[in-house]
Amino acid sequence: MTVFRTPHERGINVTCTDFDTSNDLTELLNSLSTSGPEAHDELFRAVYYELRRRADGKMRRQPRDHTLTPTALVHDVYAKLFRPEDVRWKNRRHFFAVAALAMRSILVDHARKRRRKLEGLGRERAGLDDLIDVFQQRFGTPHSDIIDLHTALEELKEIDCLAYEVVNARVFLFMSMKEIAEELGTPLRTVERAWAFARAWLLDRLS
Amino acid sequence: MSDAERRAYQVFKECLDLPDDARDAYIDAACAGQPESREIAHRLLRIHRANADDDLDDDSAAATSAFSRAFGELEGADEPPEALPDLSGAIVGDQFRLDTVIGRGAVGVVYRAVEEGTRRTVAVKVVHGGLASRSEWFAREIRALLLLDVPGVVRLLDYGDFRGRPYLVTELVDGQRFPGERPPVDWARLEAPVCSLLEILARVHRLGIAHGDLKPGNVLVTADGGVMVLDLGIAGGPAMSATDSEDAIWPGTPPYMAPEQLHAGAGPPTERTDLYSVGAMIHKALTGQVPHASASQTEMARRRRSESVDVTDLEVPEHVRAVIAALLARAPDDRPDGAAAALAALRREQSPFDELSGLDYPWIVTSVERVLAAASDGQALDLHGPPGSGKRRVLRRAAADLSAMGVRVYRVCAGSTPGSSLVAALTGRLARDRGGATRSTESLAPHLRLALESGDVVLVDDWDHVDPLSRDVLDDVRSSGCVVRAGAWLGPDAVAVGPGTEAQLRELFAGPDRLVHLREDGASLLMDRSGGVAARVGGELREWMRARFARIVDGRVVVDRDALERIDRTPCAVGRAASPCRIGDFDERSRDVLRTVVAADRFVEIDVVARVSGISVEEATATIASLVECGAAAVRERDGAVAVTGAAPAPSWSPDERRARHRALAMALPPGSPGRTRQLLAGGLLDQVPDDAAARGQSLLAEGRVTRGLARTRSVLGMLRRMGAVGDASLPIARVLVVLAMVGGSRDGLRAALHELDWIESDASELRDLKFIAHAALLAMTGLQRRALAVADAQGPVEDIDLELRRNTARRRAAARLPEDLARPVLDDLQEWAATRTERRVQLEALDWLGWQRYGEGRFREAAELFGQIAERSATECGRGNALAGAASALLEAHDFDAAVRAAEQAVAIGRDARFVGLEARAERSRRSALYRSAQTTSPDRELVEALQHVRIPNVTGMALLTEAALAWRSDDRSLARDVAQAAAVSFADNGQRAGEILALALQAAVDGDVAQSEITDAINEIVTCPLPGIVVQAIGLFALRSPAAAQSRRTEFLAAVSTIPEPHRAARREVISVAEAVEFVALRG
Q1: Which has more confidence, B439 or B16?
Q2: Using CA atoms, how far apart are residues B1078 and B629, in angstroms rounded to an integer?
């Protein structure tokens, strides 16, 4: 089975010089349906890079009361990478799928790093810790570790692809059911069912 | 995945479509014969049920999630969309590309837009075309936003005209309409947004601006719970009410409007109407309905005007219900006295009185120690001091301390029945009858002696009013042990309690003395107003806290500079605080002198008192001595002159007498002297106030006391405004106010000045000129330089030479931050203009412009030379200080560190003496930097770092913090270095100084490396485009310590930047490191 890996796991070094022109990305997004996996990877790296840079950089320099939400981040990234009027509507689905994955891998990478560091020395909180806190609160199960969730999600992908997509969007982008239904072009009821299943399954798996 | 699992998942999903009570049966039926599947499906269902409540209910159709708002799919516009050309895709103001429509309001359409350069997402509001009145509203919003740089109100980023339609650009707020979720909401969840909203309103109202259209759609709650107020379309100051005719219809949203606004000819919105709107919003959030919800709007308006709101059914705590009822009161006067008052009531804050008990006055502590020492020695002790000096406080503290140590304490208080004082103390009960008391008292004496001998302590409060019998007994037993008597005068051997000295008062205050001088000035102000008398100190502090000027944190009084200025302008708390002495016993002269002293309100010199009361100085001195003795007055000696202030209420007199006394005081005080303006106001001599206040402002300006001058002149204009007396006569003060605000160089000062100018009713061209000049100066400081130049150019030049000078100063400031090609013509024009004038002040100002021009060109020596000339020729301390600070900056850049330190030290002294915070901070920054660069100091200045948190001056705070961070780094104090570097980065970021921000980040990376690799790469790629080679070299050098590879990748740019720096300058430290160090770091790690 194909397991989703974070850039860190894949050994990809994401730097900003690769992605200077938003034009290319708009093209890329528009041609995604016809191009191969490299295009997808490229898009993922761009979105990952932007999210990561903003999430960590911004939060580091913001006063404490300035909590950044994934929604705001994704919104920023979307605005930075794409000219909205050029992006065909249906392709937004790709964008959200990619953004959710990127957000997830950022949090997972960070949680891993944090876990490693915690074992060694006490350290200061980084901006991303806040984001993980928000995630914990939002997901609502204090015992659920984001890294475990990450692993479980890859299993879920094999079992129910729609459920997997819904969890990604809902948990990592904080999208509402209605928005997910619209973005996925799926009836709301179906999305709700998928979510109910995914939640029950994940909680079962994680407990 | 096994087949059993597959089947279980399928069945579980299917059962979700059934009602909950049918699901178990369905699973049983569908998995008949497959026990494994059945068990899995049941387990999932159990988990599903257990967590069903956690499902965040954000899917309701009405809730606009932050997400859809961000992406432009907004529902719930308050008005039906109006036909207006779709401007999506257009670029307004050269840099904002319009995207989707995110809202439509009464005035215009709001687009989401992206700023081309920074890619920042913003909101652009474009007004509907055609309707002049709408443009007028729009202008109001622009002005309101310019005046308001208040946390919680969207910030104005730009404005202008696009294809004939006005537009304005603000921050884009990503949030949901108040209260952030779909009503009904319970109070526990509502409390936080309501309190935030009231806090914001309190700040807005303090500036004299009412919002006028508060409703859920105009108050957004962000995902992190922050509250943002939008759409100040109707917000306004007075100018509007002056221009609008009586039957003007104020726009608004009726369901949230106050009853008094719901009829034609209603007045403009006020603080009270805003409070009603808040009440209506709370009502709607709690119940899902606005108050008086009705089938039609007419019906609702009728009911709102005639019926009260019934709040008895609201499920909220009792005190909250009371606040909501008050907010929704039909009569404006019945509503809370401002948003701050409503907030305090909601939070049920403790009365400040209780907090005060945690404060230890140092001189009281000293006296308590004396009592404790006497107790342990078994010795008698007398304490004395005038009423209010804190004797009772000493006894109370001593009693508590002694009891805690296990000592038995008897407290004797005043009594009139013979023996009652003692009996009450010993038995804990008042003696019921005289006979019993007498017998008891006599029998108590031996008992008391025994107790004292065994170490018990007797504390006698108010000795003069203890009954004679008890006094006899106590006198009798004093030799046996520790009897502590406290009274007004107990002979030369008694210990005097208080008054506190200024040095002791200083210990009461928290906060740094550097730059902001909070302890020094707090103590000096408190001393001025209280004379150090305990009761008056308490009375003052209580007033300060009640007015929210001060708080007590960890046993210390916390105030800020702004509050100190404001306190200084309010009358003393004298009359209420002091214990009244027996004024009835005074002779007529004493009464008269006391009246004069109280009318003066502050310390007034004795010869002035003598003149006003018509007596000789000797007579006045003697009378005042007797007043001081009984606690009715306090004196202070400063610079050889004795001054006096009242400490008791003035003996009764008629309002006419009082007014006459204020007039006499005004006449006795020299024009422009402190406190005279208030006497003129109180004496009803309104016509003399503007000139006097202007003179006072001028003299404060000349002394360099800019911060204070600004506060003073503003307050006088405010007082005149409240008396309805702001017309042509106010123009002299207005002029001084604008000059002070421009010299002070803070945006807040200019905002305040503009606000006051708005209230002045005059057709004089001078007023118009003052307004546009202040406006241009404000724009130049708000980052809208082009707009500033446009405003200054459109309405100038002006005839009045002083105003023209100010106009040109505003132009110079705007040009300083523009690109060379735009700035050059302006600067040339300024010098040409100056060359045609002969006035000395113009010449000095022109030298200043030229100095900064040279500075900008990198010709630092010449700049320093020019500033030096100004310093020599300047007639005022303020001008000299500013020039010296400029010279220090230039010398610093010219690497002449010793000279820079010398110039900076002089400027610091001038700034400190004048309490001109901006000047002192700027000069202090140069001084520290010069010391750092020449390695004459090795340790960071922690007090300075703390003080810098209080002053936020563009270009200064960030650089000053960076220097201290560098010092901390070099002295290996890593945690301080990291914190301070981070604070520096925040300060730079606040002012949009990206290069500084990156340099601070580089230092952070060098200190502890907790900076993401990607961020370093990104920062390095960005910094190489910076035009300042020194910054490029330092940043890359510092980053090399953490990320050698990233630094190496920009080696070419690094070396190019190094080569532009002359050889002799490479060894010297710059902001953080020297060029040589940077080269070493890059080479070492490469």
Answers
A1: B16
A2: 70
